[in-house]
Design brief:
Order of helices and strands: HHEEEEEHEHEEHEHEHEEHEEHEE
Number of helices: 9
Structural class: alpha+beta
Shape: globular
Pfam family, one: Peptidase_M28
Protein name: PDZ domain-containing protein
Largest sheet: 10 strands, mixed
Radius of gyration: 21 Å
InterPro entries: M28_fam, PDZ, PDZ_sf, Peptidase_M28
Strand content: 15-25%
Length: 414
């Protein structure tokens, strides 16, 4: 299998590396493919892949070409594409209207299918859009710049393509629907549109796997998996699939800030894979050379083994998770930190501090573990979120934290 460069926009018109479609991919070829895909999608040429831009269109065309070369059946409304339009209301308190007609932002999901003649279909998804030049979602301070989004989410998109290559050569009892979503950064637009306008019968969907930011596996090989409470079959299967001794940090909820939420709200079991937040999140510095490609391959192989393990079971039972009834905390203030979502100790460990925010003003640093906010004891992420939701702008609170094993206190002004 020979890989050739894919670094120009012209690359989307042709297949630029040659796979033997009759031969299952090797670890070496998969890793090379992951690197090529991330490098292409996160290149400056694509301008950050914001929905409705030329770069996003080129990314969609590139992925459609990949799906075709792998041999996936087109499952969009126009070959591999499912186009949608988002009309943004002038009233900021109204939701965007997602459809196919009218004026607005144009986006496209990219959808391919492996038909194993089964009654059950597994959906595997990842969003391929990002922030373009920054804008509202950016954490960058300074002049506008291209946000290449290598981890968020060229990494998940590359993993999607790699899994399609693997599963095309394996025997399974289930069908597979591969979806690259657009508009995730703006509010799960692409996945929201798909579940309301599915190109297959959602009654046949067994479960959904979502990969969002899976390119920064750390030295401890920590992999966060959200949604494990959405089916009783998940936790036992995860343990069996963990042949590479990954450190699995799990949470039960099927609701989160990524595309799996759209499927969970249709009463479908979901899993969201995530290798953790970092200081380059939503900044121009999220570039391809920072991706851990060996780690990304480990995530892909883990998911492949998990699919194989779950394939031995009948259709999975769905379970609603306890924090999914619409009463999630609502925030009017921010501490101005990036939480360490992979931390499994007591408290909320800080993975990054934003400029000109309350945490920075109070002297909090990366690595500090928040243990107390006013009268609230912080034992995990959810208790931190609940405590934070109680404060208003102008409030002062005594915050207790641990730094290098020493307990400290500081006053925070929101």
């Amino acid at each position: 299998m020979k890989f050739l460069p894919k670094h120009t926009l012209a690359a989307v018109a042709v297949t630029l590396f040659t796979w033997s479609c009759d031969t299952a991919p090797t670890d070496e070829s998969l890793k090379a493919g992951l690197k090529e895909d991330v490098t292409y999608l996160a290149a400056d040429d694509l301008g950050g892949r914001a929905i409705g831009t030329e770069g996003e269109k080129k990314a969609a065309e590139y992925l459609a070409a990949e799906f075709k070369e792998i041999g996936l059946e087109p499952k969009g409304t126009e070959e591999y594409f499912q186009a949608f339009t988002v009309s943004k209301p002038s009233n900021p308190h109204e939701e965007a209207v997602i459809g196919t007609d009218g004026e607005g932002v144009k986006g496209r999901n990219v959808i391919g299918f492996i038909d194993n003649k089964s009654e059950n279909t597994i959906v595997i998804g990842a969003h391929f859009d990002h922030l373009g030049m920054g804008g509202q979602g950016s954490l960058h301070r300074g002049d506008s710049a291209i946000h290449n989004g290598a981890d968020d989410n060229a990494s998940g998109t590359a993993a999607l393509v790699a899994l399609a290559r693997i599963l095309k050569h394996e025997e399974h009892k289930s069908n597979f629907l591969f979806i690259a979503f657009s508009g995730e950064e703006n509010g799960l637009w692409g996945s929201n549109y798909f579940v309301k306008n599915p190109t297959i019968d959602l009654k046949n969907v067994n479960y959904m796997i979502n990969m969002d930011m899976v390119g920064r596996l750390n030295a401890e090989k920590t992999l966060a998996i959200n949604g494990v409470g959405t089916s009783p079959s998940f936790v036992p299967a995860l343990d069996v699939a963990n042949a590479d001794s990954l450190k699995l940090v799990t949470s039960e909820s099927g609701v989160g800030p990524s595309d799996h939420t759209s499927f969970y709200l249709q009463d479908l079991p979901v899993l969201h894979f995530f290798t953790g937040q970092h200081e380059d999140y939503h900044k121009p510095s999220d570039d391809a050379e920072l991706i851990n490609y060996d780690g990304l391959l480990l995530v892909v192989k883990f998911i492949d083994r998990l699919v194989d393990q779950l394939d031995a079971e009948p259709k999975l039972a769905f379970t609603k998770t306890k924090d999914s009834n619409g009463d999630s905390p609502r925030f009017t203030v921010s501490l101005g930190v990036v939480p360490d979502y992979l931390y499994d100790g007591k408290g909320m460990r800080i993975d990054g501090v934003s400029e000109d925010k309350p945490a920075q003003a109070a002297g909090l640093l990366k690595g500090d573990v928040v243990l107390q906010m006013g009268d609230s004891t912080i034992v995990d992420m959810m208790s931190y979120m609940r405590a934070l939701s109680a404060f208003q702008k102008g409030d002062e609170v005594l915050l207790g934290y641990e730094r290098d094993g020493e307990k400290k206190e500081v006053k925070v002004v929101f």
